[in-house]
Amino acid sequence: MSDSVTMAAKAESTLAIVCGGGSLPFAVADAAVRQGRRVVLFALRGFADPQRVTAYPHHWARMGEFNRFMSIATEEGCRDVVFVGSVTRPSWWQLRFDLRLLRLIPDIVRLFRGGDDRLLSGMAGLLEQQGFHVLGPQEIAPELVMPDGPIGTRVPNDRDRADIARGLALLAANSPFDIGQAVVVADNQVLAVEGPEGTDQAVARVAELRRSGRIRTPSGIGVLVKAPKIGQDHRLDLPSIGPQTIEGAAAAQLAGIAVVTGSTIVAEPERLAAAADKAGLFVIGVTDGTRR
Amino acid sequence: MSDSVTMAAKAESTLAIVCGGGSLPFAVADAAVRQGRRVVLFALRGFADPQRVTAYPHHWARMGEFNRFMSIATEEGCRDVVFVGSVTRPSWWQLRFDLRLLRLIPDIVRLFRGGDDRLLSGMAGLLEQQGFHVLGPQEIAPELVMPDGPIGTRVPNDRDRADIARGLALLAANSPFDIGQAVVVADNQVLAVEGPEGTDQAVARVAELRRSGRIRTPSGIGVLVKAPKIGQDHRLDLPSIGPQTIEGAAAAQLAGIAVVTGSTIVAEPERLAAAADKAGLFVIGVTDGTRR
After folding, report:
1. What is the spatial distance between Cα A255 and Cα A155, in angstroms, rounded to a whole number?
2. pTM of the predicted model, to two decimals?
3. pLDDT digit string (tens) for A34-58?
C-alpha cells in the first residue's frame, strides 16, 4: 500500500483519542491534524490536562463509560481509536456502570486480575469486539517513535553499555510478570525495579537512596533502562520519555537513559535532546537482541 | 558426626560475631552462649545497636578494618566467624584502609562491582583465605530458622497461595540479577520489587501506593514473599523477618507474609507469632519447588 493510499484511508474517519495524563496525547493529536485528519479527544477525567484539551474538539469521560464512549464516537464518525497518556489502574468504585458495561462485567472482572498489560489489552479487545479499530500512537505519529542511537550530544561509555545490557536482560526476565517497564542499573548493580508507582517514582527512589547513603555508587554512574514488555501489544501503553524523565534522571545523578528503538514514544524529541544536553545526560535508542 | 561431637568442636573456639543492625545479632549471640560457647562481638560502627552490644564482650570496628579484625579475633581465640545483622553497602571513602586491606585491593575492587551477594561472598572468601571459618547464623542457632507451615493462627487462602507462588517465581527469575530478596504480590499483580532500599522500605512503598490511590487492590489482599537468591551462599545475608516486618505488612494492608522454610531467619519467633496474630496476618514458611 503506497503512502498516499494510507493517508487517504486514514482521512476517512475521525480519530478518537482516549486521552490520559501528560503531553503525549496532544503530540499525537497534533501529528494526526498535520496529516489532515480530524480528531476528537475523549479526555479522561482526573488524568487529561483540562487546559490543553480545550484546544481540540473534546468530550470529558470517565473510565468505564463504554456506552457513552461508543455512542459519541459513533456520532462523531470515529472508527479508529488510540489510547494515549498516563492513567492509574481504575478501581471498581470509580467506574461508571452504564448498561453496556454491565453486560461486559464477566470479561472485565477477568481484566482486573493481573497487571496493567492484561487490563489494557482486554479493554482494547472489548472495543474491537464492538467494531472499533484500536491503533498505537506510533501508527498515528511515527515521528514520535524513538530512533536508533543517541538523541543529543552525549553517548554512553563502556560501563554504561554494560549497565544497559544488564537492564535489558532484567526487563526481559521480569516481562512474564507484567511489572513495570523500567529499571535503574549502576555499575552492574540494580538500584530500582519499577512497580505500579511508575518510572518517575522509581527514579526518584534512586535519588532518595543516594541522599540517605543507602547506595554508594558515585554520582554520574547508572542508567535508566526502559523497554516494553516482551509480547506486549504495541498499540497500548508503550514506554514513553519526556523532559520530566530527564529531570528525574539528573536528580538521581545517573549517566543517562536508554530506551528500546522503535517501541518507545518521545513526546517532544527536540525539547528532550536540549534537556538531555543541558543536564549532561545521554539519551539513546538501543536495539534489544532478545526481542522480535 | 554426632551432635555431641559437633557441640564439642564448636566449644573449641570463641565465636566472632560481626554485628550489623537489628536484633538478630543478639539472638544469635544468645543462642551461642546457651550452647556454652564464648562469643565476641565485632560491632560495626553506624550499624550495631550501641546499647545492646554492651551486654556482650565486644570491640567496635569499621567496615574494611580487616587487619584490626584479624589481629583482635586471633588474640580472642576466634576461628569461627558469623556475619549477622543489616548493613549498608559501604563506599570506598568509608573504608578504613589498613595495610592488609591495601594488599587485598585488587580483590576488593572486583567485589564492589555487582550486587550485595557478590560483595558478601567475596568478603567471606577473603576471610577464609586468611584461615577463618565463616559460618551461617542458622548453623549457630538452628532454633532461629523458619519452620515449615504457619507461625501463629492465620493461614493463607487460595488467592494468597497463588500470590505466594507468583512471588516465588518472580524472585527466582530475578535471582541472577542479585536484586533484593522480597516482592509484594496482590491478587496476581506485582506491587513492589525490593531493591537496595530493603524489605521494610519496599513494603512501605505499597502502603504509600495505597494511600495515594495508585493501586486499588482492596485492603487485606496481598502477600510479602521473601526468599534467598538461588545459589546464594547460605552463610551470608539470609532473609530475615521480625516484628517490624509484621508492622510494615500490616500498614500496607497485606494478608500475610511467606518466607522460604529453612532459609529464613526469625529473630524472635514467639514475639513474631504474637505480633502476627494481633495484626491479623498470616506468617508462613513455604517450600519452593524451584530451589534445591
Report:
1. 9
2. 0.78
3. 999 999 999 988 888 999 999 999 9
- For the CA atoms of B116, B45, A251, B108, what is the dihedral angle to 10 degrees? -40
Q: How does residue B112 score in pLDDT terms, banded at 50, 70 and 90?
A: very low
Beta strands in A143-276 (DSSP E): 149-151, 182-186, 189-193, 223-226, 240-241, 256-260, 265-266
Q: Please give the grid coordinates belonging to residue B251.
A: 500498614
Count of CA atoms in the C-beta half-sphere (13 A) of B118: 17
Q: Chain B residues with CB inside 8 Å of A191's CB?
A: 195-196
Q: Strand A282-286 vs strand A149-151: parallel, antiparallel, or unpaired?
A: antiparallel
- Residue-wise pLDDT for B221-234, tens only, equals 999 999 988 777 77
Residues paired with residue B285 on neighbouring β-strands, in sequence order: B149, B259
Which amino acid is residue B188, in one-letter code?
A: N
Chain B interface includes A36 (CB < 8 A)? no
Q: Which residues contact B242 (CB under 8 A, 6 or more apart)?
A: B22, B23, B24, B266, B267, B268, B271, B272
Q: Which among B197, B203, B230 is the top mutation candidate for probing chain A, defined by the most A β-carbons within 10 Å of its own β-carbon?
A: B197
Give contacts of B191 with chain A, Cβ < 8 Å. 195-196
Q: Which of residues 71-110 of B touch A (CB under 8 A)?
A: 88-92, 94
Is B171 near chain A, with CB under 8 Å?
no
| Residue B122: predicted pLDDT | 67
